[in-house]
Amino acid sequence: MNLQKRDQKMSATARVPKKFVYNFSAEETEGHAGMRDILGGKGANLAEMTSLGIAVPPGFTISTEICGAFYRDGEVLSEEVKSSVREALIKVE
Fold it and tell me: Distance between CA 71 and CA 24 in Å, rounded?
């Protein structure tokens, strides 16, 4: 593999976040208002409200990076992302 292709592959891998889905509920919240770049405005606000004890139904937010990758990759989600979403749905149920 030539260096240019290797660098492109490495930079594409570096863009993929390690965490795809962030849960929020009265029991567990994985975000806060300062995570606006990762959670988007609504996701960050929901996480913050939950952390403050405001009655918010449990849910989850898919990271903005995954949303961007979805459109960049032809509206396809990886199996790893789909698995994370399924796990989050089970927690909400």
Answer: 25
For residue 48, how far is the Cα from the chain centroid? Answer: 16
CATH topology of domain 18-92: Dna Ligase; domain 1 (3.30.1490)
Q: Domain ranges in the chain?
A: 18-92
pTM of the entire predicted model: 0.76
Give start and end residues of each alpha helix (H) in 1-93. Answer: 3-15, 36-51, 64-72, 79-92
Give the pair of three-digit tokens for residue 14: 């570096």
Mean pLDDT, the chain, integer: 85
Burial class (CB in 10 A: 0-12, 13-18, 19+), 3: exposed
User: pLDDT class for 18, splitting at 50, 70, 90?
Assistant: confident
